[in-house]
Amino acid sequence: MTQTAITNTIRRLRFERNEMTQQDLAERVGVTRQTINAIELGKYSPSLEVAFRIATVFGVRLEDVFSYDGGAQGPQRDSR
């Protein structure tokens, strides 16, 4: 698997919440522990719904959990 352009603060948020385990978070979100691990490592980008569920578990905004680092150029425009 390759790294995604999406970074996250899930690990930090878990440890700020009394060292919540990946399994605890997975159960609250409704995914597997392996999915949480892959998201944390940047090997998998969650669906928008799963991303919102993760943010909801921590009681924070989506952008407090995930950020996109796809380059500073922004979308490419057709120069026709």
What does this 3D model show about the protein?
- With 80 residues, this protein is mainly α.
- The protein has one domain (6-68): 434 Repressor (Amino-terminal Domain).
- The chain is built from 5 helices and 2 strands, in the order βαααααβ.
- A two-stranded antiparallel ribbon has the order 1-2.
- The model has no long low-confidence stretch (mean pLDDT 90).
What name does the CATH topology carry? 434 Repressor (Amino-terminal Domain)
CATH class, please? Mainly Alpha
How many separate helices? 5
Number of strands: 2
User: What's the CATH H-level homologous superfamily?
Assistant: lambda repressor-like DNA-binding domains
Poorly predicted ranges: none
The dominant shape is globular
Strand order of the largest sheet: 1-2
User: Helix proportion of residues, in percent?
Assistant: 40-55%
The Cα radius of gyration reads 14 Å
Give the topology, please.
Layout: E1 6-8, H1 10-16, H2 22-29, H3 33-40, H4 48-58, H5 62-65, E2 66-68
